[in-house]
Amino acid sequence: MEVAEGIEPKGANYLLEVDKPLVIPTNRKVRFLLTANDVIHAWWIPQFGTKKDAIPGYINELWTLVEKPGTYRGQCAELCGKDHGFMPIVVEAKSPEQFEAWLASEKQGQAKDTADAAREWSKGELLTHGEKVYANCVACHGADGKGMPGAFPAITGNPVATGPVAAHVSVVMNGKTGTAMQAFKNQLSDLDIAAVVTYQRNALGNNTGDIVQPTQVNSVR
After folding, report:
1. In what order do the strands lie in the sheet with 88-94?
2. What class, spelled out in words, does domain 121-220 have in CATH?
3. Residue spans of the chain under pLDDT 70
């Protein structure tokens, strides 16, 4: 976000970085299953010598065998819409030993996430975490929640952010048809959604007093 907005300088891999790369082991055949939830995209990594379309409602497949550990970069190779230039692919290939160590660490992290999602969070904890998750919303709704008049609605005083909690959770999870509001249910965890909804309802000029727990989000899923 900071790079895209010119706050930080562009690096050598500008537009080819991701928050969480795909990790695979070397010297093993890896099978990929591809689909899409909106329009046709394409999985393309030049160094793998593979390119395959990801089509809504259809599962495509391809495989690769990477011999050398390293970072391999690609991007969507279909003109999929206005955000086509922001769809990089990054794969980290690790030796079998490094991959097993990474996998064990990820399983520990998932176990913690599961425990976190099951417990009851205080309002202060949710607000602190929600402020961090709100970084996903800043581009459209602004850091101050005022939005962009005529383009993106404000969070401050918004009828969704101050109305029924269930409707607010639904919009964050499923997006809003016909608008730029995308669905975040596949990108954010139950805790992330609970926290950002709590934050939007109790910050940025709003003060509903409502608290949303991860268990409430999970019940909607």
Report:
1. 22-25, 88-94, 70-75
2. mainly alpha
3. 1-7
